[in-house]
Design brief:
CATH topology of the largest domain: Udp-n-acetylmuramoylalanyl-d-glutamate--2,6- Diaminopimelate Ligase, Chain: A, domain 1
CATH superfamily of the largest domain: NIF3 (NGG1p interacting factor 3)-like
Strand order of the largest sheet: 6-7-5-8-10-11-12-9
Number of helices: 11
Number of strands: 13
Distance between the termini: 29 Å
Radius of gyration: 25 Å
Oligomer: single chain
Strand content: 25-35%
Shape: globular
Helix content: 25-40%
Largest sheet: 8 strands, mixed
Protein backbone atom coordinates (compact mmCIF):
# COMPACT_ATOMS: atom_id res chain seq x y z
CA UNK A 1 0.00 0.00 0.00
CA UNK A 2 1.19 3.49 -0.80
CA UNK A 3 0.68 6.38 1.58
CA UNK A 4 -1.51 9.10 0.11
CA UNK A 5 0.31 12.24 -0.98
CA UNK A 6 -1.93 14.13 1.43
CA UNK A 7 -0.42 12.33 4.42
CA UNK A 8 1.20 14.52 7.05
CA UNK A 9 3.77 11.86 7.96
CA UNK A 10 7.30 13.15 7.64
CA UNK A 11 10.53 12.18 9.34
CA UNK A 12 13.96 13.76 8.76
CA UNK A 13 16.50 11.15 7.65
CA UNK A 14 19.15 12.54 9.97
CA UNK A 15 17.17 12.18 13.21
CA UNK A 16 16.68 9.16 15.44
CA UNK A 17 13.43 7.19 15.18
CA UNK A 18 11.37 6.72 18.33
CA UNK A 19 8.42 4.52 19.20
CA UNK A 20 6.39 7.73 19.19
CA UNK A 21 7.26 8.21 15.49
CA UNK A 22 5.97 4.71 14.74
CA UNK A 23 2.85 5.29 16.87
CA UNK A 24 2.19 8.62 15.12
CA UNK A 25 2.61 7.04 11.67
CA UNK A 26 0.10 4.30 12.49
CA UNK A 27 -2.25 6.91 13.95
CA UNK A 28 -2.13 8.82 10.67
CA UNK A 29 -2.95 5.87 8.40
CA UNK A 30 -5.21 4.00 10.87
CA UNK A 31 -6.36 6.42 13.61
CA UNK A 32 -6.51 4.78 17.02
CA UNK A 33 -9.67 6.82 17.69
CA UNK A 34 -11.41 4.74 15.01
CA UNK A 35 -10.86 1.47 16.91
CA UNK A 36 -14.08 -0.18 18.05
CA UNK A 37 -15.30 0.48 21.58
CA UNK A 38 -14.43 -3.03 22.82
CA UNK A 39 -10.87 -2.75 21.53
CA UNK A 40 -7.69 -1.65 23.30
CA UNK A 41 -5.48 -0.56 20.41
CA UNK A 42 -2.47 1.67 21.05
CA UNK A 43 0.43 1.55 23.50
CA UNK A 44 0.45 -1.69 25.51
CA UNK A 45 3.79 -1.81 27.31
CA UNK A 46 6.82 0.46 27.48
CA UNK A 47 7.51 4.07 26.55
CA UNK A 48 6.94 5.96 23.30
CA UNK A 49 10.15 7.91 23.88
CA UNK A 50 12.13 4.71 23.23
CA UNK A 51 14.69 5.03 20.40
CA UNK A 52 14.08 2.39 17.74
CA UNK A 53 16.44 0.90 15.17
CA UNK A 54 14.66 -2.44 14.79
CA UNK A 55 10.93 -3.20 14.92
CA UNK A 56 9.12 -6.53 14.92
CA UNK A 57 5.62 -6.92 13.44
CA UNK A 58 3.42 -9.81 14.49
CA UNK A 59 -0.21 -10.88 14.31
CA UNK A 60 -0.14 -12.01 17.93
CA UNK A 61 1.77 -10.98 21.04
CA UNK A 62 2.93 -14.57 21.56
CA UNK A 63 5.87 -15.38 23.79
CA UNK A 64 7.57 -16.85 20.72
CA UNK A 65 7.20 -13.56 18.83
CA UNK A 66 8.57 -11.57 21.77
CA UNK A 67 11.51 -13.96 22.13
CA UNK A 68 12.35 -13.56 18.45
CA UNK A 69 12.20 -9.77 18.87
CA UNK A 70 14.65 -10.12 21.77
CA UNK A 71 17.01 -12.28 19.68
CA UNK A 72 16.96 -9.75 16.84
CA UNK A 73 17.61 -6.84 19.19
CA UNK A 74 14.30 -5.08 18.48
CA UNK A 75 13.39 -2.11 20.65
CA UNK A 76 9.76 -2.04 19.47
CA UNK A 77 7.00 -4.49 18.54
CA UNK A 78 3.79 -3.79 16.64
CA UNK A 79 1.13 -6.47 16.98
CA UNK A 80 -2.33 -6.71 15.52
CA UNK A 81 -3.99 -8.32 18.52
CA UNK A 82 -3.56 -6.35 21.76
CA UNK A 83 -1.66 -7.82 24.70
CA UNK A 84 -3.97 -6.17 27.23
CA UNK A 85 -7.73 -6.33 26.60
CA UNK A 86 -9.22 -5.57 29.99
CA UNK A 87 -7.86 -3.58 32.95
CA UNK A 88 -5.42 -5.74 34.94
CA UNK A 89 -6.38 -6.27 38.58
CA UNK A 90 -3.09 -8.00 39.26
CA UNK A 91 0.09 -8.85 37.38
CA UNK A 92 0.68 -12.56 37.87
CA UNK A 93 4.08 -13.33 36.34
CA UNK A 94 3.17 -17.01 36.16
CA UNK A 95 0.25 -16.26 33.81
CA UNK A 96 0.74 -16.11 30.06
CA UNK A 97 0.06 -12.38 29.88
CA UNK A 98 2.29 -11.81 32.91
CA UNK A 99 5.17 -13.70 31.30
CA UNK A 100 4.73 -11.64 28.13
CA UNK A 101 4.80 -8.32 30.01
CA UNK A 102 7.80 -9.42 32.07
CA UNK A 103 9.72 -10.43 28.96
CA UNK A 104 8.97 -7.11 27.27
CA UNK A 105 9.95 -5.00 30.28
CA UNK A 106 13.13 -6.96 31.05
CA UNK A 107 14.29 -6.48 27.47
CA UNK A 108 13.15 -2.84 27.26
CA UNK A 109 10.79 -3.44 24.32
CA UNK A 110 7.86 -1.10 23.64
CA UNK A 111 4.71 -2.85 22.40
CA UNK A 112 2.07 -1.10 20.27
CA UNK A 113 -1.09 -2.76 18.92
CA UNK A 114 -3.02 -1.73 15.81
CA UNK A 115 -6.17 -3.83 15.86
CA UNK A 116 -9.66 -2.86 14.68
CA UNK A 117 -8.34 0.52 13.55
CA UNK A 118 -6.11 -1.35 11.06
CA UNK A 119 -8.87 -3.82 10.15
CA UNK A 120 -11.05 -1.08 8.72
CA UNK A 121 -8.51 1.44 7.38
CA UNK A 122 -7.53 1.95 3.76
CA UNK A 123 -4.86 -0.60 2.89
CA UNK A 124 -5.49 -2.48 6.15
CA UNK A 125 -6.47 -6.04 6.98
CA UNK A 126 -9.66 -6.15 4.90
CA UNK A 127 -8.28 -4.29 1.89
CA UNK A 128 -5.27 -6.62 1.88
CA UNK A 129 -7.53 -9.67 2.03
CA UNK A 130 -9.63 -8.35 -0.86
CA UNK A 131 -6.47 -7.75 -2.89
CA UNK A 132 -5.09 -11.25 -2.30
CA UNK A 133 -8.40 -12.72 -3.48
CA UNK A 134 -8.09 -10.52 -6.60
CA UNK A 135 -11.45 -8.85 -6.13
CA UNK A 136 -12.42 -6.03 -8.47
CA UNK A 137 -14.56 -2.91 -7.96
CA UNK A 138 -13.99 -2.96 -4.21
CA UNK A 139 -16.75 -1.46 -2.04
CA UNK A 140 -17.04 -0.73 1.68
CA UNK A 141 -19.71 -2.61 3.62
CA UNK A 142 -20.95 -2.24 7.17
CA UNK A 143 -20.95 1.14 8.85
CA UNK A 144 -19.45 2.43 12.07
CA UNK A 145 -19.27 5.92 13.54
CA UNK A 146 -15.75 7.34 13.31
CA UNK A 147 -16.40 10.59 15.12
CA UNK A 148 -18.83 13.43 15.75
CA UNK A 149 -18.30 16.36 13.42
CA UNK A 150 -18.39 20.13 13.83
CA UNK A 151 -18.16 22.98 11.34
CA UNK A 152 -15.85 25.94 11.79
CA UNK A 153 -16.89 29.24 10.19
CA UNK A 154 -14.44 32.15 10.24
CA UNK A 155 -13.87 35.46 8.48
CA UNK A 156 -10.48 36.40 7.05
CA UNK A 157 -8.91 38.66 4.40
CA UNK A 158 -8.63 36.98 1.00
CA UNK A 159 -4.83 37.15 0.90
CA UNK A 160 -4.60 35.10 4.13
CA UNK A 161 -7.14 32.45 3.14
CA UNK A 162 -4.90 29.75 1.64
CA UNK A 163 -2.41 29.94 4.50
CA UNK A 164 -5.28 29.48 6.96
CA UNK A 165 -6.72 26.53 5.01
CA UNK A 166 -3.29 24.85 5.01
CA UNK A 167 -2.80 25.42 8.74
CA UNK A 168 -6.28 24.13 9.67
CA UNK A 169 -5.86 21.17 7.32
CA UNK A 170 -2.56 20.24 8.97
CA UNK A 171 -4.35 20.42 12.33
CA UNK A 172 -6.95 17.87 11.14
CA UNK A 173 -9.76 20.02 9.71
CA UNK A 174 -11.24 19.66 6.23
CA UNK A 175 -11.33 15.85 6.12
CA UNK A 176 -14.37 14.34 4.40
CA UNK A 177 -13.99 10.57 3.95
CA UNK A 178 -11.06 10.10 1.50
CA UNK A 179 -10.71 13.81 0.70
CA UNK A 180 -8.39 16.27 2.44
CA UNK A 181 -8.18 20.06 2.65
CA UNK A 182 -11.91 20.39 2.01
CA UNK A 183 -13.18 23.95 2.46
CA UNK A 184 -15.86 26.34 1.23
CA UNK A 185 -15.39 30.08 0.94
CA UNK A 186 -17.53 33.01 -0.06
CA UNK A 187 -16.66 36.68 -0.47
CA UNK A 188 -18.46 39.39 1.48
CA UNK A 189 -18.00 42.62 3.42
CA UNK A 190 -17.19 42.89 7.11
CA UNK A 191 -17.58 46.03 9.21
CA UNK A 192 -16.22 46.99 12.63
CA UNK A 193 -15.36 49.97 14.81
CA UNK A 194 -11.99 49.73 16.61
CA UNK A 195 -12.30 51.20 20.14
CA UNK A 196 -9.71 52.55 22.53
CA UNK A 197 -7.26 49.85 23.62
CA UNK A 198 -7.53 47.94 20.35
CA UNK A 199 -4.67 47.38 17.92
CA UNK A 200 -6.39 46.85 14.56
CA UNK A 201 -4.43 45.24 11.72
CA UNK A 202 -6.74 47.01 9.29
CA UNK A 203 -8.28 50.48 9.88
CA UNK A 204 -7.93 53.10 12.59
CA UNK A 205 -9.32 53.51 16.10
CA UNK A 206 -12.60 55.42 16.30
CA UNK A 207 -13.43 54.99 12.61
CA UNK A 208 -15.98 52.56 11.13
CA UNK A 209 -14.24 50.25 8.67
CA UNK A 210 -15.57 48.23 5.74
CA UNK A 211 -13.33 45.32 4.70
CA UNK A 212 -13.65 42.79 1.89
CA UNK A 213 -13.40 39.41 3.67
CA UNK A 214 -13.79 35.72 3.00
CA UNK A 215 -16.24 33.55 4.91
CA UNK A 216 -14.37 30.25 5.27
CA UNK A 217 -15.99 26.95 6.34
CA UNK A 218 -14.28 23.66 7.24
CA UNK A 219 -15.43 20.55 9.11
CA UNK A 220 -13.45 18.93 11.91
CA UNK A 221 -13.80 16.20 14.51
CA UNK A 222 -15.38 17.27 17.80
CA UNK A 223 -12.46 15.84 19.78
CA UNK A 224 -10.07 18.14 17.87
CA UNK A 225 -11.86 21.33 18.99
CA UNK A 226 -8.99 22.61 21.15
CA UNK A 227 -6.34 21.98 18.49
CA UNK A 228 -8.41 23.59 15.73
CA UNK A 229 -9.23 26.77 17.69
CA UNK A 230 -5.63 27.19 18.84
CA UNK A 231 -4.47 26.83 15.23
CA UNK A 232 -7.02 29.41 14.06
CA UNK A 233 -5.93 31.97 16.65
CA UNK A 234 -2.24 31.36 15.95
CA UNK A 235 -2.55 31.93 12.18
CA UNK A 236 -5.28 34.57 11.91
CA UNK A 237 -3.95 38.08 11.14
CA UNK A 238 -6.60 39.87 13.23
CA UNK A 239 -6.13 40.79 16.87
CA UNK A 240 -9.59 39.37 17.67
CA UNK A 241 -10.81 36.98 14.95
CA UNK A 242 -14.54 36.38 14.49
CA UNK A 243 -15.45 32.70 14.21
CA UNK A 244 -18.26 30.27 15.01
CA UNK A 245 -18.37 26.52 15.69
CA UNK A 246 -21.51 24.52 14.91
CA UNK A 247 -22.19 20.90 15.90
CA UNK A 248 -23.34 18.85 12.90
CA UNK A 249 -26.24 16.42 13.04
CA UNK A 250 -24.35 13.76 11.11
CA UNK A 251 -21.18 11.89 12.01
CA UNK A 252 -18.29 10.69 9.90
CA UNK A 253 -18.83 7.10 8.87
CA UNK A 254 -16.51 4.33 7.74
CA UNK A 255 -16.84 0.89 6.16
CA UNK A 256 -16.25 -2.09 8.42
CA UNK A 257 -15.48 -4.73 5.80
CA UNK A 258 -15.08 -5.02 2.02
CA UNK A 259 -16.70 -6.67 -0.97
CA UNK A 260 -15.88 -7.00 -4.64
CA UNK A 261 -16.32 -9.09 -7.75
CA UNK A 262 -14.43 -12.09 -9.05
CA UNK A 263 -12.92 -11.54 -12.48
CA UNK A 264 -13.98 -15.07 -13.39
CA UNK A 265 -17.12 -16.24 -11.52
CA UNK A 266 -16.97 -19.87 -10.50
CA UNK A 267 -18.78 -22.49 -8.45
CA UNK A 268 -18.27 -22.58 -4.69
CA UNK A 269 -16.13 -25.74 -4.92
CA UNK A 270 -13.68 -24.03 -7.29
CA UNK A 271 -13.76 -20.81 -5.27
CA UNK A 272 -12.85 -22.77 -2.13
CA UNK A 273 -9.80 -24.22 -3.89
CA UNK A 274 -8.83 -20.72 -5.04
CA UNK A 275 -9.04 -19.31 -1.50
CA UNK A 276 -6.98 -22.22 -0.16
CA UNK A 277 -4.31 -21.49 -2.76
CA UNK A 278 -4.23 -17.72 -2.29
CA UNK A 279 -4.22 -17.80 1.51
CA UNK A 280 -2.09 -20.94 1.81
CA UNK A 281 -4.52 -22.60 4.19
CA UNK A 282 -7.28 -25.21 4.39
CA UNK A 283 -10.69 -23.57 4.62
CA UNK A 284 -14.03 -24.85 5.78
CA UNK A 285 -17.07 -23.88 3.75
CA UNK A 286 -20.84 -24.03 3.93
CA UNK A 287 -23.20 -23.81 0.95
CA UNK A 288 -24.15 -25.58 -2.27
CA UNK A 289 -20.99 -26.69 -4.04
CA UNK A 290 -22.50 -25.73 -7.41
CA UNK A 291 -23.50 -22.22 -6.27
CA UNK A 292 -21.96 -19.69 -8.67
CA UNK A 293 -19.85 -17.13 -6.82
CA UNK A 294 -19.67 -13.66 -8.38
CA UNK A 295 -19.61 -11.11 -5.55
CA UNK A 296 -17.46 -11.77 -2.49
CA UNK A 297 -17.45 -10.14 0.96
CA UNK A 298 -14.32 -10.36 3.11
CA UNK A 299 -13.72 -9.69 6.79
CA UNK A 300 -10.43 -10.59 8.42
CA UNK A 301 -10.73 -12.23 11.84
CA UNK A 302 -14.06 -13.21 13.35
CA UNK A 303 -16.66 -11.64 11.04
CA UNK A 304 -19.38 -14.23 10.70
CA UNK A 305 -21.97 -11.86 12.13
CA UNK A 306 -21.68 -9.69 8.99
CA UNK A 307 -23.15 -12.32 6.66
CA UNK A 308 -26.64 -10.77 6.57
CA UNK A 309 -25.25 -7.39 5.49
CA UNK A 310 -23.15 -9.16 2.86
CA UNK A 311 -26.17 -11.03 1.50
CA UNK A 312 -28.29 -7.87 1.50
CA UNK A 313 -25.63 -6.13 -0.60
CA UNK A 314 -25.81 -8.85 -3.25
CA UNK A 315 -22.80 -10.92 -2.20
CA UNK A 316 -22.82 -14.68 -2.79
CA UNK A 317 -20.26 -15.58 -0.14
CA UNK A 318 -18.47 -14.22 2.92
CA UNK A 319 -14.82 -15.10 3.57
CA UNK A 320 -13.98 -14.70 7.25
CA UNK A 321 -13.12 -16.89 10.25
CA UNK A 322 -14.39 -18.42 13.51
CA UNK A 323 -17.79 -19.16 11.98
CA UNK A 324 -20.20 -20.42 14.64
CA UNK A 325 -22.47 -23.36 13.89
CA UNK A 326 -25.69 -21.37 14.27
CA UNK A 327 -24.43 -18.73 11.83
CA UNK A 328 -23.40 -21.38 9.27
CA UNK A 329 -26.79 -23.08 9.62
CA UNK A 330 -28.83 -19.92 9.17
CA UNK A 331 -26.70 -18.62 6.30
CA UNK A 332 -26.87 -21.82 4.28
CA UNK A 333 -30.62 -22.15 4.77
CA UNK A 334 -30.89 -18.54 3.58
CA UNK A 335 -29.15 -19.51 0.32
CA UNK A 336 -25.86 -17.87 1.24
CA UNK A 337 -22.33 -19.31 1.34
CA UNK A 338 -19.64 -18.86 3.98
CA UNK A 339 -15.94 -19.71 3.86
CA UNK A 340 -13.99 -19.96 7.12
CA UNK A 341 -10.35 -19.36 6.25
CA UNK A 342 -9.15 -18.99 9.84
CA UNK A 343 -7.96 -16.06 11.89
CA UNK A 344 -4.29 -16.39 10.93
CA UNK A 345 -4.76 -16.71 7.18
CA UNK A 346 -7.16 -13.77 6.92
CA UNK A 347 -5.11 -11.37 9.07
CA UNK A 348 -1.42 -12.24 8.71
CA UNK A 349 -1.22 -10.71 5.19
CA UNK A 350 -2.44 -7.40 6.62
CA UNK A 351 0.40 -7.49 9.15
CA UNK A 352 2.84 -7.74 6.25
CA UNK A 353 1.09 -4.75 4.67
CA UNK A 354 1.52 -2.64 7.82
CA UNK A 355 5.18 -3.65 8.09
CA UNK A 356 5.76 -2.58 4.49
CA UNK A 357 4.09 0.80 5.05
CA UNK A 358 6.18 1.54 8.13
CA UNK A 359 9.36 0.34 6.41
CA UNK A 360 8.69 2.72 3.53
CA UNK A 361 8.16 5.62 5.92
CA UNK A 362 11.28 4.85 7.96
CA UNK A 363 13.82 3.34 5.54
CA UNK A 364 16.66 3.65 8.08
CA UNK A 365 14.85 1.32 10.49
CA UNK A 366 15.02 -2.47 10.12
CA UNK A 367 11.64 -4.20 10.21
CA UNK A 368 10.82 -7.88 10.64
CA UNK A 369 7.69 -10.02 10.49
CA UNK A 370 7.09 -12.93 12.85
CA UNK A 371 5.67 -16.00 11.13
CA UNK A 372 5.35 -19.06 13.37
CA UNK A 373 5.81 -22.62 12.21
CA UNK A 374 2.74 -24.66 11.34
CA UNK A 375 0.80 -25.65 14.44
CA UNK A 376 2.66 -23.24 16.72
CA UNK A 377 1.94 -19.81 18.23
CA UNK A 378 -1.46 -19.34 16.62
CA UNK A 379 -0.71 -20.70 13.12
CA UNK A 380 -2.87 -23.78 12.42
CA UNK A 381 -1.65 -26.96 10.78
Amino acid sequence: MKISSSSKITHPNNTEITAHDIYHAIDEIAPFKDAFSFDNAGLQVGTLSKKVTKCMFSLDRSLAAIKQAVQLGCECMVTHHPLIWDPLKKLDLDSHIGKSIELLIKNDITLISAHTNWDISEGGINDTLASILQLENIEHLGCYTKSELCKLVLFIPHEDMNQMIDALSNAGAGVIENYRRCAFYQQGTGTFLPSEGSEPVIGKKGRVELVEEIRLEMVFRKEDFSTITKTLLAHHPYETPAYDVYPLSHSQKGGTFRCGYLKNPCQLSAFLSFVNLQLETQCRAWGRTDRVIRKVAVCGGAGGSFWKEAKKSGCDVLVSSEIKQDIALEAVESDFCIVDAGHFATEQPGCYALKNVIQELFPKMNTYIYSPDLGLSGKPL
